[in-house]
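Complex 393.
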Amino acid sequence: MDNKTSRKRIYLDYSATTPVAPQVVEAMQPYFTETFGNASSAHDFGRNAAAALDEAHTVVGCAIGARASEIVFTGCGTESDNLALRGAALAARRNGKGNHIISSPVEHHAVEGTVRQLHDLFGFDITMLPVDGCGRVDPDDVRRAIRPDTTLVSVMLGNNEIGSQEPVKEIGQVCHEHNVLFHCDAVQAPAYLPVDVNELNVDMLALSSHKFYGPKGSGVLYIRDGTPYIPTLTGGGHERGRRPGTVNVASAVGTAAAIKYIAAQRDEQAERLRGLRDRLFEGVLANVPDARISGHPRDRMPHHASFVFKDIDGETLLMALDVEGIAVSTGSACTSGNPEPSPVLLAMGIPREWALGGLRITLGYHTTQDDIDAVIETLPRCVEQVRSAVLEY
Ligand SMILES: Cc1ncc(COP(=O)(O)O)c(C=O)c1O
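Predicted structure with pyridoxal-5'-phosphate bound:
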Protein backbone atom coordinates (compact mmCIF):
# COMPACT_ATOMS: atom_id res chain seq x y z
CA MET A 1 0.00 0.00 0.00
CA ASP A 2 1.33 3.47 -0.80
CA ASN A 3 1.07 6.41 1.56
CA LYS A 4 -2.22 7.67 0.22
CA THR A 5 -4.15 4.42 0.40
CA SER A 6 -2.84 3.49 3.87
CA ARG A 7 -3.68 6.91 5.36
CA LYS A 8 -6.75 7.23 7.58
CA ARG A 9 -9.64 8.61 5.58
CA ILE A 10 -11.43 11.54 7.16
CA TYR A 11 -15.19 11.93 6.77
CA LEU A 12 -16.37 15.53 7.01
CA ASP A 13 -19.65 15.35 5.13
CA TYR A 14 -22.09 14.73 7.98
CA SER A 15 -24.66 17.05 6.39
CA ALA A 16 -24.83 14.64 3.44
CA THR A 17 -25.36 11.68 5.74
CA THR A 18 -24.25 10.18 9.04
CA PRO A 19 -23.22 6.65 10.00
CA VAL A 20 -25.98 4.70 11.72
CA ALA A 21 -25.31 4.53 15.47
CA PRO A 22 -24.65 0.94 16.70
CA GLN A 23 -27.54 1.13 19.18
CA VAL A 24 -29.84 2.12 16.32
CA VAL A 25 -28.78 -0.92 14.29
CA GLU A 26 -29.35 -3.08 17.35
CA ALA A 27 -32.81 -1.63 17.99
CA MET A 28 -33.85 -2.22 14.36
CA GLN A 29 -32.51 -5.76 14.03
CA PRO A 30 -35.49 -7.77 15.42
CA TYR A 31 -37.93 -5.99 13.11
CA PHE A 32 -36.44 -7.58 10.00
CA THR A 33 -36.61 -11.21 11.04
CA GLU A 34 -38.55 -11.74 14.26
CA THR A 35 -41.17 -9.03 14.65
CA PHE A 36 -41.61 -8.72 10.89
CA GLY A 37 -45.42 -8.54 10.73
CA ASN A 38 -47.33 -5.93 8.78
CA ALA A 39 -48.38 -3.34 11.34
CA SER A 40 -51.81 -3.17 9.67
CA SER A 41 -52.50 -6.91 10.10
CA ALA A 42 -55.02 -7.89 12.77
CA HIS A 43 -53.21 -11.03 13.97
CA ASP A 44 -50.55 -11.36 16.64
CA PHE A 45 -47.61 -10.76 14.24
CA GLY A 46 -49.24 -7.55 13.07
CA ARG A 47 -50.21 -6.41 16.56
CA ASN A 48 -46.60 -6.80 17.77
CA ALA A 49 -45.34 -4.69 14.87
CA ALA A 50 -48.11 -2.13 15.52
CA ALA A 51 -47.10 -1.88 19.17
CA ALA A 52 -43.52 -1.09 18.17
CA LEU A 53 -44.80 1.47 15.68
CA ASP A 54 -47.00 3.12 18.33
CA GLU A 55 -44.02 3.36 20.63
CA ALA A 56 -41.91 4.91 17.85
CA HIS A 57 -44.61 7.56 17.26
CA THR A 58 -44.60 8.38 20.97
CA VAL A 59 -40.80 8.59 21.28
CA VAL A 60 -40.39 10.80 18.20
CA GLY A 61 -43.34 12.97 19.23
CA CYS A 62 -41.95 13.49 22.75
CA ALA A 63 -38.54 14.39 21.36
CA ILE A 64 -39.92 17.31 19.33
CA GLY A 65 -42.72 18.45 21.66
CA ALA A 66 -45.50 16.82 19.60
CA ARG A 67 -48.26 14.29 20.24
CA ALA A 68 -47.81 10.76 18.93
CA SER A 69 -50.84 11.37 16.70
CA GLU A 70 -49.05 14.25 14.99
CA ILE A 71 -46.10 12.13 13.79
CA VAL A 72 -46.13 10.56 10.31
CA PHE A 73 -43.35 8.19 9.24
CA THR A 74 -42.33 8.73 5.61
CA GLY A 75 -39.72 7.41 3.17
CA CYS A 76 -37.26 10.36 3.56
CA GLY A 77 -36.95 14.09 4.22
CA THR A 78 -37.74 14.86 0.59
CA GLU A 79 -41.00 12.96 0.87
CA SER A 80 -41.90 14.76 4.10
CA ASP A 81 -41.42 18.16 2.43
CA ASN A 82 -43.39 17.07 -0.64
CA LEU A 83 -46.32 15.69 1.35
CA ALA A 84 -46.45 18.72 3.62
CA LEU A 85 -46.37 21.44 0.98
CA ARG A 86 -48.57 19.81 -1.64
CA GLY A 87 -50.94 18.45 0.99
CA ALA A 88 -51.42 21.78 2.77
CA ALA A 89 -51.56 23.91 -0.40
CA LEU A 90 -54.20 21.72 -2.04
CA ALA A 91 -56.25 21.46 1.16
CA ALA A 92 -56.23 25.25 1.52
CA ARG A 93 -57.38 25.64 -2.08
CA ARG A 94 -60.11 23.06 -1.63
CA ASN A 95 -61.29 24.98 1.44
CA GLY A 96 -61.41 28.23 -0.59
CA LYS A 97 -58.66 29.80 1.52
CA GLY A 98 -56.41 31.09 -1.24
CA ASN A 99 -53.72 30.43 -3.74
CA HIS A 100 -50.60 32.19 -2.49
CA ILE A 101 -47.46 30.54 -1.07
CA ILE A 102 -44.34 32.21 0.33
CA SER A 103 -40.89 30.60 0.44
CA SER A 104 -37.20 31.48 0.21
CA PRO A 105 -34.55 31.08 -2.51
CA VAL A 106 -32.20 29.18 -0.18
CA GLU A 107 -34.45 26.17 0.42
CA HIS A 108 -33.36 22.61 -0.37
CA HIS A 109 -34.54 21.17 -3.70
CA ALA A 110 -37.15 19.14 -1.83
CA VAL A 111 -38.98 22.38 -1.00
CA GLU A 112 -37.87 24.48 -3.96
CA GLY A 113 -38.94 21.86 -6.51
CA THR A 114 -42.29 21.26 -4.84
CA VAL A 115 -43.08 24.97 -4.65
CA ARG A 116 -42.05 25.37 -8.30
CA GLN A 117 -44.31 22.49 -9.32
CA LEU A 118 -47.21 23.96 -7.34
CA HIS A 119 -46.73 27.08 -9.47
CA ASP A 120 -46.06 25.45 -12.85
CA LEU A 121 -48.63 22.64 -12.77
CA PHE A 122 -51.19 23.75 -10.22
CA GLY A 123 -51.22 27.53 -10.80
CA PHE A 124 -50.32 28.63 -7.27
CA ASP A 125 -48.94 32.14 -6.89
CA ILE A 126 -45.46 32.12 -5.31
CA THR A 127 -43.51 34.90 -3.57
CA MET A 128 -39.80 34.27 -3.09
CA LEU A 129 -38.53 36.29 -0.15
CA PRO A 130 -35.23 38.16 -0.34
CA VAL A 131 -32.32 36.91 1.79
CA ASP A 132 -29.41 38.87 3.26
CA GLY A 133 -25.71 38.27 2.56
CA CYS A 134 -25.77 35.38 5.06
CA GLY A 135 -28.76 33.71 3.39
CA ARG A 136 -31.23 34.72 6.09
CA VAL A 137 -34.85 35.72 5.74
CA ASP A 138 -36.13 38.79 7.63
CA PRO A 139 -39.42 38.03 9.47
CA ASP A 140 -40.58 41.56 8.55
CA ASP A 141 -40.26 40.60 4.89
CA VAL A 142 -42.56 37.65 5.60
CA ARG A 143 -45.04 40.05 7.23
CA ARG A 144 -44.89 42.35 4.20
CA ALA A 145 -45.31 39.47 1.74
CA ILE A 146 -48.44 38.03 3.39
CA ARG A 147 -51.64 38.82 1.44
CA PRO A 148 -55.29 38.02 2.15
CA ASP A 149 -54.97 34.92 -0.09
CA THR A 150 -51.72 33.62 1.48
CA THR A 151 -52.17 30.13 2.89
CA LEU A 152 -48.69 28.73 3.41
CA VAL A 153 -45.13 29.82 4.25
CA SER A 154 -42.11 27.51 4.05
CA VAL A 155 -38.71 28.46 5.48
CA MET A 156 -36.03 26.03 6.64
CA LEU A 157 -34.37 25.85 10.08
CA GLY A 158 -30.70 25.23 9.26
CA ASN A 159 -29.37 25.64 5.75
CA ASN A 160 -27.76 22.51 4.30
CA GLU A 161 -25.33 24.43 2.11
CA ILE A 162 -24.29 27.48 4.13
CA GLY A 163 -25.24 26.43 7.65
CA SER A 164 -27.11 29.63 8.58
CA GLN A 165 -29.99 29.36 11.01
CA GLU A 166 -33.20 31.04 9.90
CA PRO A 167 -35.30 32.99 12.44
CA VAL A 168 -37.95 30.28 12.35
CA LYS A 169 -39.56 31.09 15.68
CA GLU A 170 -40.15 34.72 14.66
CA ILE A 171 -41.40 33.75 11.19
CA GLY A 172 -43.81 31.27 12.80
CA GLN A 173 -45.09 34.03 15.06
CA VAL A 174 -45.78 36.28 12.05
CA CYS A 175 -47.58 33.44 10.26
CA HIS A 176 -49.80 32.68 13.21
CA GLU A 177 -50.70 36.34 13.71
CA HIS A 178 -51.99 36.22 10.13
CA ASN A 179 -53.58 32.79 10.33
CA VAL A 180 -51.21 31.37 7.71
CA LEU A 181 -49.78 27.83 7.93
CA PHE A 182 -46.05 27.53 8.50
CA HIS A 183 -43.95 24.61 7.25
CA CYS A 184 -40.30 24.20 8.22
CA ASP A 185 -37.68 21.90 6.72
CA ALA A 186 -35.63 21.00 9.81
CA VAL A 187 -33.80 18.10 8.15
CA GLN A 188 -30.30 19.37 8.94
CA ALA A 189 -30.88 20.42 12.51
CA PRO A 190 -31.83 17.82 15.12
CA ALA A 191 -28.44 16.27 15.85
CA TYR A 192 -26.99 19.71 16.56
CA LEU A 193 -29.87 22.07 17.55
CA PRO A 194 -32.93 21.47 19.73
CA VAL A 195 -36.08 21.07 17.65
CA ASP A 196 -39.38 21.72 19.43
CA VAL A 197 -42.43 22.34 17.27
CA ASN A 198 -44.08 24.61 19.84
CA GLU A 199 -40.96 26.67 20.50
CA LEU A 200 -40.54 27.06 16.76
CA ASN A 201 -44.21 27.96 16.10
CA VAL A 202 -44.48 25.52 13.20
CA ASP A 203 -47.55 23.68 11.87
CA MET A 204 -45.60 21.18 9.79
CA LEU A 205 -41.98 20.08 10.02
CA ALA A 206 -39.78 17.66 8.08
CA LEU A 207 -36.98 15.46 9.45
CA SER A 208 -34.78 12.79 7.90
CA SER A 209 -33.34 9.97 10.01
CA HIS A 210 -30.07 9.53 8.10
CA LYS A 211 -29.03 13.06 9.05
CA PHE A 212 -29.13 12.14 12.74
CA TYR A 213 -27.43 8.74 12.93
CA GLY A 214 -30.54 6.80 11.89
CA PRO A 215 -31.26 4.73 8.78
CA LYS A 216 -31.44 6.07 5.23
CA GLY A 217 -34.77 6.05 3.42
CA SER A 218 -36.65 7.08 6.55
CA GLY A 219 -38.26 10.42 7.31
CA VAL A 220 -40.66 12.09 9.69
CA LEU A 221 -43.41 14.56 8.96
CA TYR A 222 -44.95 16.44 11.85
CA ILE A 223 -48.45 17.74 11.16
CA ARG A 224 -50.05 19.72 13.97
CA ASP A 225 -53.46 18.25 14.84
CA GLY A 226 -56.16 20.18 13.00
CA THR A 227 -53.92 21.34 10.13
CA PRO A 228 -55.86 21.13 6.83
CA TYR A 229 -54.05 18.49 4.77
CA ILE A 230 -54.79 16.26 1.78
CA PRO A 231 -52.65 13.10 1.43
CA THR A 232 -51.13 13.45 -2.05
CA LEU A 233 -50.06 9.83 -2.10
CA THR A 234 -53.16 7.73 -2.49
CA GLY A 235 -53.70 4.22 -1.19
CA GLY A 236 -54.55 2.74 2.18
CA GLY A 237 -55.25 4.52 5.45
CA HIS A 238 -51.80 4.06 7.01
CA GLU A 239 -50.36 6.65 9.35
CA ARG A 240 -53.89 7.86 10.19
CA GLY A 241 -54.64 8.41 6.53
CA ARG A 242 -51.79 10.86 5.96
CA ARG A 243 -49.21 8.64 4.25
CA PRO A 244 -50.49 5.50 2.59
CA GLY A 245 -48.19 2.51 2.17
CA THR A 246 -47.10 -0.30 4.48
CA VAL A 247 -45.03 1.34 7.16
CA ASN A 248 -41.37 0.39 7.44
CA VAL A 249 -41.49 -0.60 11.10
CA ALA A 250 -37.75 -1.29 11.38
CA SER A 251 -37.02 2.21 10.09
CA ALA A 252 -39.56 3.81 12.41
CA VAL A 253 -38.00 1.95 15.36
CA GLY A 254 -34.54 3.03 14.14
CA THR A 255 -35.67 6.64 13.88
CA ALA A 256 -36.96 6.54 17.45
CA ALA A 257 -33.68 4.99 18.67
CA ALA A 258 -31.69 7.63 16.77
CA ILE A 259 -33.70 10.50 18.21
CA LYS A 260 -32.99 9.17 21.72
CA TYR A 261 -29.31 8.76 20.84
CA ILE A 262 -28.94 12.40 19.74
CA ALA A 263 -31.05 13.81 22.58
CA ALA A 264 -28.65 12.27 25.11
CA GLN A 265 -25.61 14.10 23.73
CA ARG A 266 -26.79 17.00 21.57
CA ASP A 267 -25.79 19.87 23.86
CA GLU A 268 -22.40 18.44 24.71
CA GLN A 269 -21.64 17.60 21.08
CA ALA A 270 -22.87 20.98 19.88
CA GLU A 271 -20.43 22.77 22.17
CA ARG A 272 -17.56 20.48 21.22
CA LEU A 273 -18.26 20.77 17.50
CA ARG A 274 -18.68 24.54 17.67
CA GLY A 275 -15.14 24.74 19.11
CA LEU A 276 -13.70 22.50 16.40
CA ARG A 277 -15.65 24.33 13.69
CA ASP A 278 -14.31 27.71 14.86
CA ARG A 279 -10.78 26.29 14.91
CA LEU A 280 -11.34 25.23 11.30
CA PHE A 281 -12.65 28.69 10.33
CA GLU A 282 -9.62 30.36 11.88
CA GLY A 283 -7.12 27.92 10.40
CA VAL A 284 -8.54 28.15 6.88
CA LEU A 285 -8.97 31.92 6.80
CA ALA A 286 -5.44 32.40 8.13
CA ASN A 287 -3.82 30.03 5.64
CA VAL A 288 -5.78 30.25 2.41
CA PRO A 289 -5.66 33.48 0.40
CA ASP A 290 -8.95 34.75 -1.08
CA ALA A 291 -11.12 32.65 1.22
CA ARG A 292 -14.36 33.70 2.93
CA ILE A 293 -16.93 32.05 5.15
CA SER A 294 -20.26 31.58 3.40
CA GLY A 295 -23.37 31.90 5.56
CA HIS A 296 -23.56 33.48 8.98
CA PRO A 297 -20.30 33.35 10.96
CA ARG A 298 -22.07 32.73 14.31
CA ASP A 299 -25.82 32.13 13.85
CA ARG A 300 -25.22 28.83 12.15
CA MET A 301 -25.47 25.16 13.00
CA PRO A 302 -22.53 24.24 15.27
CA HIS A 303 -21.26 21.39 13.10
CA HIS A 304 -21.32 23.33 9.85
CA ALA A 305 -18.45 25.16 8.13
CA SER A 306 -18.74 26.51 4.62
CA PHE A 307 -16.46 28.63 2.50
CA VAL A 308 -16.14 30.27 -0.86
CA PHE A 309 -12.73 30.49 -2.53
CA LYS A 310 -12.15 32.98 -5.32
CA ASP A 311 -11.23 31.75 -8.81
CA ILE A 312 -11.44 28.06 -8.10
CA ASP A 313 -13.77 25.25 -9.11
CA GLY A 314 -15.29 23.75 -5.96
CA GLU A 315 -15.73 20.32 -7.58
CA THR A 316 -12.03 20.14 -8.50
CA LEU A 317 -11.08 21.18 -4.99
CA LEU A 318 -13.36 18.48 -3.58
CA MET A 319 -11.60 15.89 -5.76
CA ALA A 320 -8.16 17.15 -4.69
CA LEU A 321 -9.16 16.74 -1.04
CA ASP A 322 -10.59 13.31 -1.76
CA VAL A 323 -7.23 12.25 -3.18
CA GLU A 324 -5.76 13.34 0.18
CA GLY A 325 -8.32 11.16 2.00
CA ILE A 326 -10.60 14.00 3.11
CA ALA A 327 -14.30 13.73 2.19
CA VAL A 328 -16.19 17.03 1.98
CA SER A 329 -18.85 18.51 -0.29
CA THR A 330 -19.44 21.56 -2.45
CA GLY A 331 -22.84 22.15 -0.91
CA SER A 332 -26.01 20.16 -1.08
CA ALA A 333 -25.32 16.49 -1.85
CA CYS A 334 -28.00 16.69 -4.50
CA THR A 335 -26.18 19.34 -6.55
CA SER A 336 -22.78 17.63 -6.70
CA GLY A 337 -21.61 17.31 -10.29
CA ASN A 338 -23.38 20.51 -11.37
CA PRO A 339 -20.81 23.00 -12.77
CA GLU A 340 -23.12 26.02 -12.42
CA PRO A 341 -22.66 28.28 -9.38
CA SER A 342 -25.00 27.43 -6.56
CA PRO A 343 -28.31 29.36 -6.76
CA VAL A 344 -28.18 29.67 -2.96
CA LEU A 345 -24.83 31.50 -3.09
CA LEU A 346 -26.03 33.70 -5.98
CA ALA A 347 -29.24 34.58 -4.06
CA MET A 348 -27.00 35.81 -1.23
CA GLY A 349 -25.29 38.21 -3.64
CA ILE A 350 -21.99 36.31 -3.82
CA PRO A 351 -20.24 37.12 -7.13
CA ARG A 352 -19.91 34.29 -9.65
CA GLU A 353 -16.11 34.06 -9.44
CA TRP A 354 -16.48 33.28 -5.72
CA ALA A 355 -19.72 31.29 -5.92
CA LEU A 356 -18.13 28.68 -8.21
CA GLY A 357 -15.66 27.88 -5.43
CA GLY A 358 -18.05 26.79 -2.68
CA LEU A 359 -16.93 24.14 -0.18
CA ARG A 360 -18.88 22.61 2.71
CA ILE A 361 -17.11 20.87 5.59
CA THR A 362 -19.56 19.35 8.05
CA LEU A 363 -18.47 17.81 11.33
CA GLY A 364 -20.18 15.07 13.30
CA TYR A 365 -20.12 13.14 16.55
CA HIS A 366 -17.02 11.18 15.45
CA THR A 367 -14.96 14.17 14.31
CA THR A 368 -11.74 14.79 16.25
CA GLN A 369 -9.35 17.71 16.56
CA ASP A 370 -6.79 15.70 14.57
CA ASP A 371 -9.29 15.53 11.70
CA ILE A 372 -9.70 19.30 11.74
CA ASP A 373 -5.95 19.91 11.97
CA ALA A 374 -5.43 17.61 8.99
CA VAL A 375 -7.82 19.78 6.95
CA ILE A 376 -6.10 22.98 8.08
CA GLU A 377 -2.81 21.49 6.94
CA THR A 378 -4.03 19.99 3.66
CA LEU A 379 -6.56 22.49 2.33
CA PRO A 380 -4.16 25.40 1.62
CA ARG A 381 -1.98 23.07 -0.46
CA CYS A 382 -4.96 21.74 -2.40
CA VAL A 383 -6.28 25.24 -3.08
CA GLU A 384 -2.88 26.30 -4.35
CA GLN A 385 -2.60 23.21 -6.57
CA VAL A 386 -6.05 23.72 -8.05
CA ARG A 387 -5.48 27.44 -8.60
CA SER A 388 -2.22 26.79 -10.39
CA ALA A 389 -3.76 23.79 -12.19
CA VAL A 390 -0.88 21.44 -11.42
CA LEU A 391 -3.11 18.86 -9.84
CA GLU A 392 -2.07 15.27 -10.43
CA TYR A 393 -4.44 12.31 -10.03
C1 LIG B 1 -32.39 20.76 4.20
C2 LIG B 1 -32.69 19.45 3.57
N1 LIG B 1 -33.95 19.13 3.28
C3 LIG B 1 -34.29 17.95 2.73
C4 LIG B 1 -33.32 17.02 2.42
C5 LIG B 1 -33.72 15.72 1.81
O1 LIG B 1 -33.64 14.68 2.75
P1 LIG B 1 -33.57 13.15 2.24
O2 LIG B 1 -32.15 12.91 1.84
O3 LIG B 1 -33.95 12.34 3.44
O4 LIG B 1 -34.53 13.02 1.15
C6 LIG B 1 -31.96 17.32 2.67
C7 LIG B 1 -30.90 16.37 2.28
O5 LIG B 1 -29.75 16.74 2.11
C8 LIG B 1 -31.65 18.55 3.28
O6 LIG B 1 -30.38 18.88 3.56
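The first helix runs from residue 3 to 6.
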